[in-house]
Amino acid sequence: MPTLLGIVADKWISAKWVYALCHLVGAGTLFMAAEVTTPGAMFMVILLNSLAYMPTLGLINTISYYRLKDAGMDIVTDFPPIRIWGTIGLHYGDVGSELRRL
Questions:
Q1: Domain carrying residue 88
Q2: For residue 33, is it left (φ>0), alpha (ψ between -120 and 50) or beta?
Q3: pLDDT tens for residues 1-11?
């Protein structure tokens, strides 16, 4: 599924719209999950959610590369620090919120 949506995003539709559509479908499946009462149905809903979410991992890189090029930045030198510091910031915020509970 991620490969097929990547081809669609590259050729026919802007990656940002495919990204938004994937997240909207994922949100819909999570709303459906709140109403599910059987394990089999829950498995199917979460499977659909995963199928909607997985393409977004590659699409966000495509969108990031486009934005960096648009800003006149070099992808090879500027993208890795952004990616690394974004991950560090995410974990720092998570640890900070956990320590606040103590």
A1: 74-102
A2: alpha
A3: 556 666 666 67
